[in-house]
From TrEMBL:
Catalytic activity, reaction form: [protein]-peptidylproline (omega=180) = [protein]-peptidylproline (omega=0)
Domain of life: Eukaryota
Subcellular location, record wording: Cytoplasm; Nucleus
InterPro entries registered for this protein in UniProt: Phstyr_phstse_ac (IPR004327), PTPA_C_lid (IPR043170), PTPA_sf (IPR037218)
Protein name: Serine/threonine-protein phosphatase 2A activator
Lineage: Eukaryota, Metazoa, Chordata, Craniata, Vertebrata
Gene Ontology molecular function: ATP binding; metal ion binding; peptidyl-prolyl cis-trans isomerase activity; protein tyrosine phosphatase activator activity
Function of the molecule: PPIases accelerate the folding of proteins. It catalyzes the cis-trans isomerization of proline imidic peptide bonds in oligopeptides. Acts as a regulatory subunit for serine/threonine-protein phosphatase 2A (PP2A). Modulates PP2A activity or substrate specificity, probably by inducing a conformational change in the catalytic subunit, a proposed direct target of the PPIase. Can reactivate inactive phosphatase PP2A-phosphatase methylesterase complexes (PP2A(i)) in presence of ATP and Mg(2+).
GO biological process, one term: mitotic spindle organization
Record-linked Gene3D superfamilies: 1.20.120.1150
Record keywords: Acetylation, ATP-binding, Cytoplasm, Isomerase, Magnesium, Metal-binding, Nucleotide-binding, Nucleus, Rotamase
EC code: 5.2.1.8
The keyword Manganese is assigned to this record: no
Gene Ontology CC, one term: nucleus
Amino acid sequence: EAEGERTPAERTSEEVAPPLQQSFMIPKKEINMVSDMAKWKRSQAYADYMGFILTLNEGVRGKKLTCEYKVSEPIEKLVALLNTLDRWIDETPPVDQPSRFGNKAFRTWYAKLDQEAEKLVATVIPKHLADAAPEVAVYLKESVGNSTRIDYGTGHEAAFAAFLCCLCKIGVLRVDDQMAIVFKVFNRYLEVMRKLQKTYRMEPAGSQGVWGLDDFQFLPFIWGSSQLIDHPNLEPRHFVDEKVVNENHKDFMFLECILFITEMKTGPFAEHSNQLWNISAVPSWSKVNQGLIRMYKAECLEKFPVIQHFKFGSLLPIQPVMS
């Protein structure tokens, strides 16, 4: 039938209906050498991933962690999944070992996730999408750190964002879940990652040391700065003030990050977190937010050591973006 012979309503219903037979696949490595980076930047995966990050950035703009938002059943199930990972940390205490960092008990904890990941993901997705579980579970497994090196960094964080992005692509998470994705799910993920980092003394992966933004995370600084845009009295210069952080961290992800850094590091803030110290001199939160998005692309998404580990499947394809 020619396009013109159908009513707009008929056409729309077909476009909205899910594809009948989506063939899922186990995501795999595609970026094997520096010259492959061009493939990544042109890929559908890059466009979808960045689009997802920026959509959430807009979704939380000017909003507090403590504000009211819709919490759907899949969101509740994702929090329950993260609570399970948290409980496993309690059940897997660090072992006595000669070296201070990289506690080997992390490997025991990780082995459990490796074994259970598909089952955990299956609790979040509806029965008719069960075939997607093996593909989506790969991103969950990649999001908690490396069990050989016992390290964690922004590439692992990106895998968790990719995990959530995949759940959006299969329709488990929806547009009106945006605030809950960041404030409930991603925030809970951060709490569990901080507990892993502390409990097993994980090494920062591919860290730029004192020249990086943070040893472990990046996205909460982006979304956290968006939360603070147009705040009536909190300016970027205030986040280096201990009192301001203590009084406001429960409302703002950015300040939670600062609090965690000051708990973990000793010495003057300007020395151990020089990049953040520099950012505190930026006049407005919207400038901070724009700058961090640029920095995220340059320092994380365009760095081979980070992106070489990213995996591509049917939901986040390596194929060039369809214009």
